[in-house]
Structure formats: C-alpha cells, structure tokens
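2024-03-11 09:14:02 INFO queue: dequeued item Histidine--tRNA ligase, len=432
2024-03-11 09:14:02 INFO validating residues
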Amino acid sequence: MSYQRPKGTNDLLPGVSEKWQFVEETARLIFRDYQYQEIRTPIFEHYEVISRSVGDTTDIVSKEMYDFYDKGDRHVTLRPEGTAPIVRSFVENKLFGPEFSKPYKTYYMGPMFRYERPQAGRLRQFHQIGAEAFGSENPAVDVESMAMALDFFNQLGIKQIKLVINSLGDKETRATYRQALIDYLEPKMAELSDDSKRRLHENPLRVLDSKDKKDKAIVTEAPSILDYLSDASKEHFETVKTMLTDLNIPYEIDSNMVRGLDYYTNTIFEIMSEAPGMGAQSTICAGGRYDGLVEELGGPSTPGFGFALGIERVLITMDAENVEVPVINEIDAYIVGLGTETNIESLKLVQAIRNFGFSADRDFMNRKAKAQFKTAGKLNAKLVLTLGENELSEGIVNVKSMENRNEKAFPLTDIYEKFDEVYDEMTANTPV
Ligand code: ATP
Ligand code: MG
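2024-03-11 09:14:37 INFO prediction written
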C-alpha cells in the first residue's frame, strides 16, 4: 500500500518552503507599511456566504466548490477565495462601527480550495495573499491598492509584469450594458459554448470571461462596457487613470476583462506576468472594487476594494525571471561530541547556548569526528565546540572559530555562565 497526496495539492518541503516564507514575510512587511492588519477566517464557511457573494453562475460556485453537508446537516464549503469570508467577518464583527478607523484595511493569507483541472499554476488547494479596504469610495483607494500590489512584486524582484485595468461600472451601467451585450450575442447564440448559451440570459457578462476558444473569438467584437459607463462611473474611472499616471504607473485597458466573480463594480484590475513560459496561468494578481458586497451579506452599505494574488503563480514567475531568494544557511555553534559518554553534556551545552539566544545544533547519531565536522561545515557553523572524553573528565571544551581559525579551550562553566562573552571573544577579529 502506498499513499499519495490528493490530486492538485502539494507538499512544500524544505528548499521550497523557504521561498514561501520569503514571499509571506515580504507581504507582511508591505502590509505594515500600508497599514493593513491581518484577519484570519475559518477554512470552511457556510455555503451561502460564498454562493451569495461570488455568484451562483460563476465557475467557482457552479463547478469548483468543495462543499458538503456536515454531521449536523449544515451545508458548508471549503473557502474557494478570501474576500467573501472577510466580508462575512467584517459584517459579523461589526467592523464598520464608529470605533474603527476608515477605511478599514485588512489582509489575509492562506489556502483556498477549488475543484479545477490541475495544471502548472492551477491547483485544487492553492494559496492566496489578499488585501481589502472597506468604507471609502475614493478612487485613491483603488490606486493605492494597485500600487501596493505592484510594490510587493517589485520587492520580490519580479520585473516582467503589466497592470491591466477595466471598469465594470455601477448598477445603472450594468443594466444598460447587459441589454447591449445580449443584443450582440443573441444572433451568434448557435456558435457559443453550452456554458455561454446558458449564461447568455442569466448573466451575460460571464460570457466575456469564457475560456472557450470560439467564445473568446466572438466576444472580441462585443460592445465595450466603457461606452456604457454612467456619469459617476466614468468620472471614477477617469480619476483612477489620472492617479495612475500621476504615480508613473503604466497600465493597459482591456474592456473585455470582467473577472470570474460577480461582486465587482467599477474598477477591476489584473497583474499579469510577461515572463516567458507562464502559459495560460499568467494572471498572478487580480482584484477590484465591490461596492455592493457588504450590503449583500447583511451589513450596512459600505464600499470596498481588494485583490488576491496566487502564491504558487508568484513563485513560478520568480523562477521564470530567475529571482534568487535569500536563504539563511548559517548556525552560531555546532557541538561535536565524541563517545557516548559525552551525550548528556552535549545536550546540556546545546541547550545552554540556545538559551543565550544563539542558534545551535549537535550530533545525535554517535558519528565519528570526521562526519561531525563535515556537518558543522555544511551548516556554516561559526563556532565548533568539541567535547571528547578527555575534555569531559577535565571539565573543558575546545572552541574553534571557523571564520578566523581562533582556537581555545574554555571551562564548561564559561559556556553555561557566559557563552555570549565566549562567542564575542572567539568571533572578534583578534587572535586569542
Ligand atoms: P483564472 O482565470 O486563472 O482561473 P480566477 O479569475 O479564477 O483565475 P481569482 O479568483 O481572481 O482568479 O483569484 C486571484 C488569483 O488567485 C489568480 O490571479 C491566481 O493567481 C490565483 N488562483 C486562482 N485560482 C487558482 C488555482 N486554482 N491555482 C492556483 N492559483 C489560483
Ligand atoms: Mg478560475
């Protein structure tokens, strides 16, 4: 019998997990700079939270949900994305209240689940980092948020990216555009994919988001939503463009871009990687404004703007651009213990050194001196402490600095009482 991980999931092993930590730590630093604070929501939610906000006709809800009935017959689902849970939490915990600053800026990171056809950059358990800002209609929030996402990629060393924006307008815009789109698509109905045929009257904007080749060709000629923007939406979009220009942020407009979630209004954006070999999974970050979502989930009318980025795709992009992740491969001290009699003393030594706040390790396998020194070298130990049976009986330990080759025997009590001083003495660039 051999067990394998479920299809579309990954084990992140050392060598790779360092890269994840680097990405996550970089994100946390950026969020600090922009004053976003973390919310952690449960991995599963009531089905309704997702279906109501993401939309019943979306691929996510209609095909990709990991939903089930629990033992109490509650319909729950693993979360497929982060915004709906955050909005649910925002409403449930009344984060719109007067005691909280506005806009309320929050971020999250963690696993998301979608039943998709797995391929490079498309998994069933994948990981997102996302940010949301609640309570301001100011287009400066849209632009700050996009700038923050770009800043994050810049900090990671990712260079070959482009920002693509569009506007989906407000309610008024959507009503007039919906009819124009139906009028355009109806005569071509026979050529559309089955999914798109079904969605044409239910939710025609979904047809624009179809991944079907023939659908894609048909929608290239579709009327542009930008020609239908209400005066308010037009002004919002114009201001967003002006602000991007003022910040010297280059962008493209794609009037066919609608995104895979129903809750967006006005500004939407994607950040795409232009690195070679990214294939169809080149969108590494996506988001936009969702001014009706808080109300949809039972809260007071509250505008919102947010985005999510896929960590797996970010790492593929970093590989494609040959970005090196800094790894710390260094340890302050390594104990070489020779002979089984030194076992207990080695344990006491390594713990004492750690209690002084230094990193340290030792041999546990009773290996020969040569093998232990080799390990110390591989770990780039700054100090190697050697304890043989003779040293043990004399109550001393031999300390060697691997950087300046200083070597000196110390009483064991020095290590226990003042290892910090021993460390400074041995690593200083003066002979001992
Ligand atoms: P796509 O069009 O590629 O399916 P999407 O529109 O479904 O993406 P969103 O729901 O907006 O994507 O999610 C935001 C980001 O999360 C994406 O840009 C991508 O980086 C990442 N992402 C989404 N689905 C997956 C997945 N199944 N595996 C890995 N990353 C994903
Ligand atoms: Mg998708």
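2024-03-11 09:14:37 INFO annotate: The pocket of magnesium ion (ligand 2) is lined by residues 59, 260 (CB under 6 Å).
2024-03-11 09:14:38 INFO item closed
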